[in-house]
Amino acid sequence: MKIKLLKNMEFGIFICCIILLVIGSIALYSSTQETNYQELKRQLIWTAISIPIMVCVIFIDYELIAKASPFFYGLFIILLIAVLFTPVVNGATSWFTITESVRFQPSEFAKVFVILFLAYVMTKIQEKGINEINRPTKLLLLLATVGLPVILIIKQPDYGTAIAYLLATILILFVSGIDKKYIIGSIVLIIITVPILYNFVLPEHAKNRIDVFLNPDLDPRGSGYNVIQSKLAIGSGQLFGMGLLKGNQTQLGFLHPKTTDFIFSVIGEEMGFIVAGAVIITYVVLINKSIYVAKTAKDDLGSYIAMGICGIFIFHMLENIGMTIGLLPITGVPLPFVSYGGSSLVTNFICIGLLLNISARRQKTIFVD
């Protein structure tokens, strides 16, 4: 049985992760020398912890994991409420501090179980009929399933992670065959609500980030400082980079935080356009293979889980890289497998484990319209 699973498995997904992890580790090596490589050492420890977890996820049938998702969904809702009462760290109450160097971010892990629970609920609804998903009451139930954790994450506040949940939900609903009227209605609603949210809901610091994104020179020594330094770093790397340990913005402390939000800037400055481009291509391959897994999954449950995970990776890649080059507002979203962070790394490897799990149990045929 295990041999059959291995034959079907989409190993290209795992190879993409290893490539990104290696490049990220090299960037962390260069950007953490002043701290005696503490972040790099912890990242390697978290990698050693994450890979066995991924292997366990692969060999437990994803249907069983999905059946357990209601319990974990409820658990993480409780954790997302509890984390709101923790001390503020970097302007947000997003972490439980376990030790001085170890913090636990429930919103990261919750991504997996919200996707699993949403996919599980959708398949249960569709058992009663393929068009059940288009009934307003059922659709509201699905949106409430995602809306509750999203509201709690916004309260932290962590707008970037909240948007990741929403994009994953949109992709899952899209592949489920949702009626076009809901898609059109959602687009109209977004167009109407975005100006209202900006003017009356968003806190001042969030508005500043958007204003600075549109014009970094509004506050070059304050809110616009990080993105200006990031673009300088990436631009100065040119084709082949300035060399490891030789980047001006990286080594002189102008990039912050260079091990998490702006790790791509370190890559661009010290390794150059070729390696930075290779990172983007690797993500494109990873996302493409994730979509292929969704298309070839043996059932709707596998397709929904794979597309939800794909949505998470798409958002994190676009947002992190986009903000470092000034194309998107800064939100503090990490770059999967590249940025430093234990919670993020374990979560991403669990996602990869689920993709490999689904691919191992698939029927290798593509859905035909």
What number is the mean pLDDT?
88
Structural class comes to mainly alpha
According to DSSP, the number of beta strands is: 2
Query: Could you name the ranges where pLDDT drops below 50 across 5 or more consecutive residues?
Result: 365-369
What pattern of helices and strands is seen along the backbone? Answer: HHHHEEHHHHHHHHHH
* Fraction in helix: 55-70%
**Beta fraction of the residues?**
under 5%
Strand order of the largest sheet: 1-2
Helix segment count?
14
**Radius of gyration, Cα only, in angstroms?**
21 Å
Largest pleated sheet: 2 strands, antiparallel
The 3D shape can be described as globular
Termini Cα gap: 31 Å
Total discrete domains = 1
Describe this structure in words.
The chain is mainly alpha-helical. The chain has one domain. Helices cover 69% and strands 1% of the residues. It contains 14 helices and 2 strands, in the order H-H-H-H-E-E-H-H-H-H-H-H-H-H-H-H. It has helices at 2-8, 11-31, 38-59, 62-82, 106-126, 136-154, 159-175, 180-201, 204-214, 225-237, 248-251, 263-296, 300-324, 342-360, and strands spanning 96-97, 103-104. Strands 1-2 form a two-stranded antiparallel ribbon. Strand 1 (96-97) and strand 2 form a beta hairpin. The chain is globular. The two termini are 31 Å apart. Mean pLDDT is 88; it is low at 365-369.
